[in-house]
Design a protein that fits this description.
The chain is about 25% helix and about 30% strand. It has about 375 residues and is of the alpha+beta class. Bound molecules: flavin-adenine dinucleotide.
Length: about 375
């Protein structure tokens, strides 16, 4: 049986970042992933993720985002892939809505640079986006797009280059928690002094107290062809996020040939992550209809629908992350319930989990403790 300082369960977005950080910090670390690295069964796939700092969800995330930005810079500098497109983000909504008010709150609290545009100014600068007369827009130049699978692969590669052991296609079947934890897969028995659970939609299989807090939701992504006459067909066009009476919609210019569009609100509740593979035809059709309707009205360059994909949101009751120690086992840590907005934070969460394994203070993530929900 191999012995490690730390075992990371699940090498997706947060797990690959955590494994990399642990290995760079000199731990003997092992990551165990049930599928290939950068697979399409969890929450870290579908080409692109928005990264931004003027965080409408809560200003408390901004220090974590500043850390994430620093770390993504380093990860990209050590990667031979493009990971991060700095094309900015245009956020559009009613001036008194959750989106614009939330951004303003983060901007004021942390003095972040953004550009405010009236509907008219926005239409002139970005003619590819429809802006209702009574809406406003905020352009965040420092925002951009992460190429999600490339990021996961790069972080996993950097972890192994720094000395981590990585097992892919090895589902963990059982863990005997104790002073030393013993993890069992079909082919391996692994001992570790500490365990970090970064299992996304599967987190509550290992952290039972999370079961009553986490809800899994099926989310759909739609891709459309784009006209080349205007700039949405240009990958340098900003990503977008709309608050509308019918929900939150967001997307990306044609970075990989097509415009990607999705609805952030809603989602079909799933009993477990494997239920993603059941038949959801009626729900998927409804999602497509909603996104088609949005794209027709608001994205003046999006043309023919091309393809769809599904992904899982693991949602906490207040839609904030849960990062903590297992209530019963001091040496078991986790990051879960990332509620559909966690990828941009992956390196910062990896750093915090690594610090927690060393008993260091992690006060910038204190607002994410499990205790708030109990
Ligand atoms: C459609 C969609 C759009 C999103 N858009 C954005 C966005 O624009 N910006 C943003 O910041 N975030 C976004 N998010 C959220 C973000 O992608 C997720 O919060 C993040 O990727 C979750 O990472 P994770 O590591 O928790 O989960 P995952 O990446 O799913 O990783 C968990 C891993 O654990 C593995 N695992 C589970 N159980 C076991 C086991 N028993 N043995 C071994 N391995 C196991 C899984 O196979 C998986 O690889 C979006 C999410 C979705 C679905």
């Amino acid at each position: 049986m191999e012995h490690y300082d730390v075992a990371v369960i699940g090498v997706g977005g947060v797990g690959s970042a955590t494994l990399r950080t642990l290995a760079l910090a000199g731990f003997s670390a092992v990551g165990i992933e049930q599928f290939e690295i950068a697979h399409a069964n969890g929450s870290s796939h579908g080409e692109t993720r928005i990264i931004r700092q003027a965080y409408f969800e809560h200003p408390d995330y901004v220090p974590l985002l500043k850390l994430a930005y620093e770390l993504w810079e380093k990860i990209e500098a050590h990667s031979n892939r493009t990971l991060w497109l700095r094309n900015g983000l245009l956020e559009i909504g009613p001036p008194d809505g959750i989106l614009i008010q939330g951004i303003e709150s983060s901007v004021q609290t942390h003095d972040l640079p953004v550009r405010r545009l009236t509907a008219d100014e926005c239409r002139k600068t970005y003619p590819q986006y429809h802006v209702p007369e009574d809406f406003v827009a905020i352009f965040e130049e420092n925002a951009g797009v992460l190429l999600v699978e490339e990021c996961v692969k790069s972080m996993a590669e950097q972890a192994t280059q720094a000395g981590a052991t990585l097992f892919a296609n090895e589902p963990i079947q059982k863990i005997d928690f104790g002073n030393t934890h013993v993890l069992h897969t079909a082919n391996q028995t692994i001992a570790a002094k500490q365990v970090v659970v970064t299992a996304g939609g599967w987190a509550s299989n290992w952290i039972a107290p999370l079961r009553r807090h986490l809800q899994l939701r099926r989310k759909r992504l739609e891709w459309y062809s784009a006209t080349s006459s205007r700039s949405q067909a240009d990958a340098r066009c900003p990503a977008f996020f709309y608050e509308l009476p019918q929900g939150y919609f967001y997307g990306f210019p044609a970075i990989i040939q097509q415009v990607k569009v999705a609805e952030h609100s809603g989602g079909k509740v799933l009993p477990n992550p494997e239920a993603q593979n059941d038949d959801h035809a009626a729900y998927d059709e409804e999602c497509r209809r909603r996104v088609d309707t949005f794209a027709r009205e608001y994205l003046l360059d999006a043309q023919e629908w091309r393809k769809s994909q599904s992904c899982i949101y693991t949602v906490s009751p207040d839609e904030h992350f849960i990062v903590d120690r297992h209530p019963e086992f001091e040496n078991v840590l986790f990051a879960a319930g990332l509620s559909g907005h966690g990828f941009k934070f992956a390196p910062a969460l990896g750093q915090i989990l690594c610090d927690m394994t060393q008993g260091k203070k992690t006060s910038i993530a204190d607002f994410l403790r499990l205790q708030r929900l109990t």
